[in-house]
Specification:
The chain is 33% helix and 17% strand. By secondary structure, the protein is α+β, with helices and mostly antiparallel strands. α12 (349-358) runs antiparallel to α16 (418-434) and α19 packs antiparallel against α20.
Length: 641
């Protein structure tokens, strides 16, 4: 979400940056090398970028197709296929002016057509008629009649949806209500253009689609899911010049690309090897690859080795996923775990706070990443670096700082406080005893055995919390969940008392992490809407009311919108309805500087090679940390101007 001119200024703050300086990590990154080499251990599921939410699939489309807008390395919104955009006074009509010189290329680099506004309409027509994997983003963008068509409501046809090609270079979207984060929605694959001429050449009956039934769209989509790279057209910074399943793919720089001067790597080569994760690190050290995934265990070993330590650094944390512990307010687990007793306990704020302040989160995070825990820990559900406004990161707003019980200058965990946890324990014992609860309270804590280190993390949580609060107070039962369908069988069925859960953002607004995400009024993360306890009901009502009041704010003052959303999120934390935990981390070995890449936690921007050089030597951990600190400073400064 951002808008043009006057609206652009407010909305660009939503993702945190105005046009300004770029960050290269403080070191020269230019080399003579222009071919980037890597390995992959599995093939893409499909080259049909309109019908996939798979990150690996989209890593190809992100580079071979273009979007209406893009983000620069600081997260500033920039023109891409669109040179400008305007929004009506009522914020319901968005009009984009497109470049008139963008060419479609085939897999040989030959020009086969000219990109037109109608190509975006064709993409929407397919996505909404078939209900592709990411078509819900048209709903999130609040596009007129998108929801109704996806639900196949009677009488609703695609020509009633708010997507229109006014002429070859003018594209118009009509919304059903203002959407502060509209622009960020357009950076998903389902919003990328595709030419009807390309689809007709691939599937001749596409020309007759006006008479297609839903079954016809399904047959077409199945065929498109299996499309060969030689049948697609490309308009991005690269075109797919080779793709041999279980062998190799090559992306070659598009010589006609409108912004070719910012594409420094001329060719991306990735070779298939099912043992890629095992052999890539050594190939990287031998100079045969330019990037390799590094496990936490391997990173620890490399960092202790004088000859290897400068070849690895932490991964740049992407705030596209957030992890937090959920409490279940409608337990459905077996009687042996005493769901009725848990129900009494979980509705006690004193009890929840004894767990909230008693959990040593940094200790738990160290189970999977000993060296990076203080970076990964999050004190809010909305992660750091997700959005900035008025020169401040959303997570640093005063309403959150007022909840801290520890000095952040002393510890990154501002909540873990043993004295406070024991204080709430004593209050909870009295309260729960009066309500008829029995001790110890059984806390069912499941884990997915397919997720590395989750079992050990749960064991740590059990031992640490029971050691602090006492086994006469709580009995944490670590339980191995199913190896298949863990999500549907455990979380969605309420088969837990306490569970580490996560949510991935959809668009550039904190609302996506709140009622727009895991804490909706009928969510399966906490089931708090099912609680019959008056105090819990009042807290939930306050949270939901604050969220909806904040969401009603427009784009004229994004700082006010964010502050209102922060006040709502603070309700979850203040009353310990959930426990914020961390974001995904890890390590990488790479000759790329991550701070040169375009930045946005949503859409496909961070999957691109545009703006990046192959460096003469990789960043080490010290250089990475310095570059990250400078990037955060530059980003906040730009957002404050």
């Amino acid at each position: 979400m951002k808008k043009l001119l006057a609206i652009v200024l407010a909305a660009v703050l939503a993702c945190g940056v105005l046009a300004g300086c770029q960050n290269n990590g403080g070191k020269s990154s230019s080399t003579e090398k222009t071919v980037f080499r890597t390995l992959h251990s599995s093939d893409v599921e499909t080259l049909n970028y309109l019908n996939t939410g798979n990150t690996y699939d989209m890593s190809l489309a992100a580079n071979t197709q273009d979007c209406l807008i893009e983000y620069d390395p600081l997260g500033n919104i920039k023109e891409a296929v669109a040179t400008k955009w305007e929004v009506s006074d009522d914020q319901l009509t968005w009009t984009f002016t497109l470049r008139d010189d963008i060419k479609w290329l085939d897999y040989t680099g030959k020009e086969v057509g000219k990109l037109k506004a109608a190509d975006f309409v064709t993409a929407a027509e397919y996505a909404l008629n078939f209900y592709t994997d990411t078509a819900y983003m048209y709903e999130e963008a609040r596009i007129l009649n998108a929801h109704e068509l996806l639900e196949q409501e009677e009488g609703i046809t695609f020509d009633m949806v708010g997507v229109e090609a006014v002429d070859d270079t003018t594209l118009k979207f009509t919304l059903n209500k203002p959407c502060p984060y509209f622009l960020s929605c357009t950076t998903y694959g389902c919003f990328m253009p595709i030419s009807a001429d390309c689809l007709t050449a691939f599937y001749p009956d596409f020309a007759n689609r006006a008479s297609w039934t839903p079954d016809d769209w399904s047959v077409f989509s199945e065929a498109l899911d299996g499309v060969d790279y030689t049948k697609l057209w490309y308009c991005g910074s690269y075109y797919m010049s080779e793709y041999s399943p279980s062998e190799k793919y090559v992306m070659t720089k598009n010589p006609t690309y409108w912004d070719a001067d910012n594409v420094f790597i001329k060719e991306i080569q990735s070779t298939y090897n099912k043992e890629a994760d095992t052999i890539a690190p050594e190939m990287y050290l031998r100079g045969e690859l330019d990037e390799a995934n590094i496990t936490s265990t391997m990173a620890k070993s490399w960092m202790a080795d004088p000859e290897k330590k400068d070849y690895v650094h932490p991964e740049r944390i992407q705030p596209d996923y957030s992890y937090f512990f959920s409490f279940d307010f409608a337990p459905q687990f077996d009687a042996e775990y005493e769901p009725d007793n848990w129900l009494i306990a979980v509705n006690s704020e004193n009890f929840r706070k004894s767990i909230f302040y008693g959990l040593n989160r940094i200790g738990a995070i160290k189970i999977s990443d000993e060296n990076n825990a203080e970076v990964m820990i999050q004190n809010t559900v909305t992660p750091r670096d997700f959005c900035v406004s008025g020169g401040s990161d959303y997570v640093d707003y005063q309403v959150f700082q007022d909840l801290y019980v520890n000095d952040p200058a002393t510890t990154k965990d501002v909540y873990f406080n043993e004295d406070l946890a024991l204080e709430y324990k004593e209050k909870a014992i009295k309260e729960l005893t009066d309500k008829g609860a029995t001790f110890p309270v059984k806390i069912l804590l499941p884990y997915n055995p397919n997720v590395s280190d989750w079992d050990a993390e749960c064991m740590y949580v059990q031992q640490q919390l029971e050691g602090l609060l006492g086994t006469d107070y709580i009995d944490i039962i670590v339980n191995q969940g199913p190896t298949k369908n863990f999500l549907s069988e455990v979380r969605r069925k309420g088969q837990f008392a306490m569970l580490k859960t996560n949510w991935g953002c959809d668009y550039a607004d904190p609302y996506t992490y709140l009622v727009g995400g895991p804490f909706s009024g009928d969510n399966t993360y906490t089931f708090y809407y099912k609680s019959e306890d008056p105090e819990t009901q009042a807290i939930v009502a306050e949270f939901l009311e604050k969220c909806e009041a904040a969401n009603a704010l427009g784009t004229d003052d994004m700082t006010a919108r964010y502050e209102a959303l922060a006040a709502a999120e603070a309700v979850l934390i203040e009353h310990a309805l959930i426990i914020p935990f961390d974001v995904s981390g890890g390590y990488t070995a790479s000759y790329l500087n991550p701070f040169e890449a375009g930045y946005a936690p949503y859409g496909v921007i961070t999957l691109r090679y545009k703006y990046q050089h192959i460096m003469d030597k990789p960043l080490n951990t010290e250089e990475f940390n310095a570059a990250y600190a400078q990037w955060q400073k530059d980003r906040a400064q730009a957002a404050g101007n």
